[in-house]
Amino acid sequence: MEQPTSFADDGQGRLFVTEQEGRIRIAVQERLRREAYLDLTDRVKSGGECGLLCVVFHPGFAENGRFFVNYTTEKNGSLETVVSEFHAAPGALKADAATEKEILRFKQPYSNHNGGQLAFGPDGKLYIAAGDGGSGGDPQQNGLNLGTWLGKILRIDVDSGSPYKVPPDNPFVSRAGARPEIWAYGLRNPWRFSFDRKTGLLWAADVGQNKFEEIDIIEKGGNYGWSAREGAHDFKPERAEGVADPMIDPVKDYGRGEGQCVTGGYVYRGRNFPALEGLYLYGDFASRKVWALRCEGNGKPVTFDALLTTLPFPISAFGEDHEGELYVLDYTGGKVLRLVDIGGAGSSRRADGQ
Question: How close are the terminal C-alpha atoms of the chain, in Å?
Answer without folding.
Answer: 5
